[in-house]
Amino acid sequence: MPTQRRREFLAALGAGAVAGLAGCSSVGGTAGGTKPTAEGTEPGVVGDKLTLTTTTSTYDTGLLDELNAPFEDMYGVTVDAVAQGTGAALETARAGDSDVVMVHARSLEDEFMDAGYGVNRRDLMFNDFVIVGPGDDPAGIEGADSATAGFAAIADAEATFLSRGDNSGTHTKELAIWDAAGVEPAGEWYLETGQGMGEVLMMATEQGGYTLADRGTFLSMTEDIDLSILVQGPIEGGPERLANPYGVLAVNPAVHDNVNYDLAMAYIGYLTSPAAQETIANYERNGKQLFYPEALSEEPNYEQYVPEGWSSSSE
Amino acid sequence: MVAPEFVSLAFDFPFETVYITSIIRVSLYVSVLAVLISTLVSLPVAFAMGFSEFRGKQFATSIINTGMGFPSVVVGLLVLLMLSNQGPLGELDLVFTKEAMIMSQFILAAPPIMAISLASITSVENRVRDAGLVLGGTRLDVALLTLKEARNGIATAILAGFGRAISEVGSVLIVGGNIAGADGVSRTRTLTTAIRLEARQGRYDTAIVLGVILVVLVLLVNAIVIRLGGQEGLR
User: Fold this and answer.
1) Which residues of chain A carry a pLDDT beneath 50?
2) Under an 8 A CB cutoff, do B178 and A36 touch?
3) In whole angstroms, what is the distance from residue B186 CA to residue B198 CA?
4) For A27, which of B28, B90, B201 is closest by C-beta distance?
5) Sign for the pseudo-dihedral over CA of B88, A87, A52, A263
6) How many Cα atoms occupy the beta-carbon half-sphere of B50 within 13 Å?
7) What count of Cα atoms within 13 Å lies in the side-chain half-sphere of residue A248?
8) How far off is chain A from B202, nearest CA to CA, in Å?
9) B209/A17 touch (CB, cutoff 8 Å), yes or no
10) What angle do CA B30, B32, B34 make, to 5 degrees?
11) B99 touching A, CB under 8 A?
12) CA nearest B199 in A: which residue?
């Protein structure tokens, strides 16, 4: 188990942190003068740096590093991945501060494209959301036949529920479920954290609360959290409402002429290629597959390139 | 927590080692440079103010003192808005770079360096200055004498600036973006932002290691500055 060895190493490192520092202090001596190694980029050079804004889930699961390393080698470029959450990632792109976006909230993506900020959206992969909570399940939601029923039961019991509250893709989904359940989440039991998925799962463990999580982050953290999946998503036969598709799109160079559009398209081309799709399919944490590739299909799915329900007459 | 089982050598884990050393490097690079620039800007200002009387000096001093308490996240936000493609400095294309982090840390470190140096320069007794003048010193000699007397205070000032820079998390997170490459090499990830990320991912072990390193670093710099501050040290 790599994780196990990693921990052993870290324990040793922790014990030897001070000793290790002696080795690092030479770094301090040259900190002012040298550029860090493995950094071939000079700011301002066009074409060797791609800024990607993405969700915390793709980053925290470790998938992104797995995908980006071959791309960086192939093109001799660096991909700067900034993990922000869907809302913030799109906002950064809207300002022209990133070149390409990988997110998971179709409604927000559509809005972004409709306003003309994004082009060439592609379906990339999917996993699903799950409702997780303490094993003893005080609200009795286990086996609920729909996400809305599960949420309604949590609200009725006024059991602690932790919301991401950060305008991320997961948060957007959560609000849509409350909306569909006809419940206005408010009260002592409903906590808006404003934190990333990992942090919220840790908090839910600490507080014995429920939360909506993407399966990927949940599976990648099973060692550190003490929560059970109480309502499954579609991957395990749960309701379709809990589907979680990821899309990737380029920032429109017609709006921001500074963005690195060519490299962004190369990146999207790479992500949707058989090789990268295979990387996604084979990526596992704790022996479980986290994401399912979706870019390769027999049928051309033109819906993926444009906002849903779009028609050319709306131009 | 897993009970520590000692691994013979760390060399089996190039990724981790590279990760941690590159984070330390970025932290030091950004903070040291920011404090250096802050010092170069702040000391002349503190000096000029310490050796002159002008109207509004009181007001200027209180502005600097206010700057010491300026929240770092707000500084980060302002720097981001300045540097963003939409902002006045958008042309520079500096968002999510070390340069942006240095800018925000410069803004954070300058006020304490300025205020503390100014306080120590003004606290050098007038008698010392008078003595210098009586002994036939030029204004420059007196200035140098004052500087010598105030050196401990100035060392403390630089130290306070560095302490603020290396241990703040809000602004570098916003303007730097906490980026590390796919190869595990930090680009804009500092000790503080890395600790936050590792805690988010539930990897408390790595977070603790980074925390220990951060504390040791700060203590180390403290010790160095105290040594430089003269034999009598800072009491």
Assistant:
1) 1-2, 10, 13-46, 314-315
2) no
3) 14
4) B28
5) negative
6) 27
7) 21
8) 6
9) yes
10) 65
11) yes
12) A199
Q: What is the pLDDT of residues A260-290, one digit of tens each?
A: 999 999 999 999 999 999 999 999 998 999 9
pLDDT at position A5: 55
Q: B143 is written with which tokens?
A: 């200035």
pTM tops 0.70:
yes
The residue of chain B with its CA nearest to that of A64 is B182
Q: What is the DSSP letter of A102?
A: E
Could you tell me the sign of the dihedral formed by the alpha carbons of B200, A22, A41, A275, in that order? Answer: negative
Q: Contact B6/A15 with Cβ under 8 angstroms?
A: yes
Q: B207 and B136 in contact (C-beta within 8 Å)?
A: no
Measured between CA atoms, the residue of chain B closest to residue A40 is B187
Which of A37, A95, A221 is the closest to B85 by Cβ? A95
**CA B4 – CA B12 distance, rounded (Å):** 17
Q: What is the pLDDT of residues B91-128, one digit of tens each?
A: 898 999 999 999 999 999 999 999 999 999 888 877 78
Shortest alpha-carbon distance between residue A89 and chain B (Å): 11
Helix (H) / strand (E) containing A296: none
Tokens of B188: 């804009």
